[in-house]
Amino acid sequence: MAVEEKEVGFLGLGIMGKAMATNLLRNGFKVTVWNRTLSKCDELVENGASIGETPAAVVKKCKCTIAMLSDPSAALSVVFDKDGVLEQICSGKGYIDMSTVDADTSSKINEAITSRGGHFIEAPVSGSKKPAEDGQLVILAAGEKALYEEAIPAFNVLGKRSFYLGQVGNGAKMKLVVNMIMGSMMNALSEGLVLASTSGLDPWNLLDVLDLGAIANPMFKMKGPTMIQNSYSPAFPLKHQQKDMRLALALGDENAVSMPVAAAANEAFKKARSMGLGDLDFSAVFETVKVLQHQS
Ligand SMILES: NC(=O)C1=CN([C@@H]2O[C@H](COP(=O)(O)OP(=O)(O)OC[C@H]3O[C@@H](n4cnc5c(N)ncnc54)[C@H](OP(=O)(O)O)[C@@H]3O)[C@@H](O)[C@H]2O)C=CC1
Ligand SMILES: O=CCCC(=O)O
Fold first, then answer.
1. Ligand nearest 181 Cα, by number?
2. Which of 224, 227, 266, 291 could bridge to 207 as Cys pair (CB 3.0-4.6 Å)?
3. Is the same domain home to 132 and 232?
4. Please, are residues 182 and 176 in contact by the beta-carbon 8 Å criterion?
5. Which GO terms describe its molecular function (predicted)?
């Protein structure tokens, strides 16, 4: 596997994939890209990337291929469908799925890749569009240790810290736990902003007070101001946050963990999707809290 040779394939050029592949190019990697909507490859090609016509073509060309896809269904399709990864994966080739999926999806992909002699790690990430652009992601890897170690030069470009978490599934679970907490916090902030305004307080003052206390955090600092301004340009699409809440709740079901706060947050994200807000930033869940306030 040649991640250390600075050559890599990249499947999926959405908000995250585009930023990550661009970053690899900027740092001297040769990158061969593929995206379902092929026109999204154009900007990467202008920046020096090559195109693979299919996932299989990318894997055929590259010893190691990274994927950054929307959800379990996309991750499975790119591997198992016609012209997919499985058609060319073989001994000596590595596949790194950085999409946020559940452990079951990751295990299915791992079994298929390794049964053909390939090597697999999952490596979902914490951090959004800006950290992806700046190489400041937090990488939550699990699976074959040797591939993890060979991927470190690429991970050092993409992230500020990588964790190796052991067997396949642990990276997916860690990512879902983190995003479950994040989704609940976003709902708490939304309710706090509505409560502040409705009870006569200045929401900007609330943000200043939060930022000086024990619950100060980068998410409140970054999203609070744009929420007050009703601005939801997508960094992390709401539909993906709802997917992560759904998958985290399923993990809770499997482990008999009661998560009423996360369940309520999931309902708010579902409501937001039903209001047509799925492609906006996940902070647009604030709009559902405002609607509920106006109905009461
Ligand atoms: N945005 C963020 O802040 C973060 C996102 N993530 C996770 O990273 C992953 C990607 O997120 P993001 O870049 O924001 O998402 P986007 O919605 O911007 O991009 C999704 C990508 O998946 C592709 N895709 C969707 N369905 C299929 C399919 N059936 N077959 C092939 N390709 C498909 C899209 O292709 P096409 O262009 O053709 O639609 C696109 O390349 C998700 O799992 C998300 O949860 C993780 C951390 C942060
Ligand atoms: O999955 C998305 C995570 C977004 C973030 O960590 O800021």
1. 2
2. 224
3. no
4. no
5. glyoxylate reductase (NADPH) activity; NAD binding; NADP binding
